[in-house]
Amino acid sequence: MSHPLLDTKVIEEAPGVYLNETGDVFALFDAQVQDSGNISYGVQVGQQRFFVKTAGDPHDPRPFLPHEERVALLHNAVRVRRSCSHNALPRLHNVIESAHGPLLVYAWVEGELLHAGSAARQDPHSAMQRFRRLPLPEIMRALDFIFDLHCELAQAGWIAVDFYDGCLIYDFSCEKMHVVDLDMYREGPFVNEMGRMFGSSRYMAPEEFERGASIDERTNTFTMGRTAANLLSDGTLARSAFRGSDAHYEVVRRACSDERRRRYASVGDFCAAWLGAGKGNP
Length: 282
Ligand SMILES: Nc1ncnc2c1ncn2[C@@H]1O[C@H](COP(=O)(O)OP(=O)(O)O)[C@@H](O)[C@H]1O
Ligand SMILES: [Mg+2]
Fold this sequence. Notes:
This protein is of the alpha+beta class and 282 residues long. It has 8 helices and 12 strands. It has 2 domains: 4-107, 2-Layer Sandwich (Phosphorylase Kinase, domain 1); 112-278, Transferase(Phosphotransferase), domain 1 (Orthogonal Bundle), CATH 1.10.510. It has helices at 4-7, 15-22, 67-82, 127-132, 136-155, 217-231, 246-255, 267-278, and strands at residues 24-29, 39-45, 48-54, 92-96, 103-107, 112-113, 158-159, 168-171, 176-179, 186-187, 190-191, 214-215. Strand 4 and strand 5 (103-107) form a beta hairpin. Helix 5 runs antiparallel to helix 6, helix 5 (136-155) runs antiparallel to helix 8 and helix 6 (217-231) crosses helix 7. It starts with a helix and ends with a helix.
């Protein structure tokens, strides 16, 4: 079916005005709920739901990143999405240009964000805590899916930046994981020019805090190891809390070594070791 969100290439109006004219705006992600400066919309047109992401208000002085950098990150997100066709990524239907920057028209995905702010993190009702209590095979399938995605992205040359549980939307009824917000992923390797980079410290490698350090696939094996520590354990690397096998535990320990040379050299090597551990291989 064809309609404006799928066909339009350029609009004259501000994104919010246009989207309210075009469909039913049923969700709003703005400065009330996040600090990125981006403004995103859940929009329904007919029976179809969309997640439309924009760089927000060009004149708002509050966000950390200026508007033009937010616009550049959205263009980057389009490149990431178009370079990888993995099922974990919501479909990108269309990109509409406006004076406020692009509108990225993604499929709306059902589910709950696994991220909770620090106050709610231990709440047993939070999505993350409910996820951690799922049957082990279900968690393993979701993890395998995330690792497989990052293996494909690494093969396409992308280094994950700012990946954390705020990128994970899990549909508990369909047992389906989606990964969103890859806007900061970078073609790598590259040099850390920021000192503390963007991201959640619960997922970040030591070099992501160190100006001048190299950020590469070894960094991302740490990120993937921390993902296992968060989804398959209590966020720590304690053996008693870890729900996987000894073989899986050893893979995670190695991936999360502080010393880079002890980690897996690539995300592909990490994934192979993880899958091998699942088959009982050392
Ligand atoms: N495709 C999608 N379908 C439904 N909800 C989404 C989708 N992508 C993101 N979201 C929700 O919108 C929120 C903001 O999106 P995100 O891409 O993280 O924006 P930001 O760059 O502002 O952090 C996410 O935390 C998530 O809850
Ligand atoms: Mg986000």
